Amino acid sequence: MTAHPTRIAEAAPRYAPPDTLADPALRAFFKLAEHWKLRIAEQRRLLGDPPESTFYKWKRQQGGALARDTLERISYLLGIWKSLQILFPDPAQADAWLHKPNTASLFGGHSALERMLSGNVADLYVVRQYLDAQRG
What we know:
Pfam families: Xre-like-HTH, Xre_MbcA_ParS_C
Number of domains: 1
Radius of gyration: 17 Å
Oligomer: single chain
Shape: globular
Number of helices: 8
InterPro entries: Xre-like_HTH, Xre/MbcA/ParS-like_toxin-bd
Number of strands: 0
Domain Antitoxin Xre-like helix-turn-helix: 25-79
GO molecular function: DNA binding
Domain Antitoxin Xre/MbcA/ParS-like toxin-binding: 83-136
């Protein structure tokens, strides 16, 4: 039995096209960067090291398309922020956690931010996964 193509298309989940996500994703990222008191170099690193001109274009909110990798990075960062807000009732404590040395084996005495600044999207995933596990 073969499904009719239009029925499959109707049943498929609807996702926002990536080009419509760029502006809200970047606004959220730069607001997050303020809360976490991230330096420009750290912001660029977390976004995947875009060229300086591209980064400042994004920062000026002149839009532009984002690569899938950049959207994925921002998604992980927003998930990390959300988990921290849930784990720590005090927003200042939640924001500070990122910068503090951590004895969990995952961090080896370094801060979560240091792990996240390795440049690998997988490290953002690992930190998010760690926090999600802490939430239970």
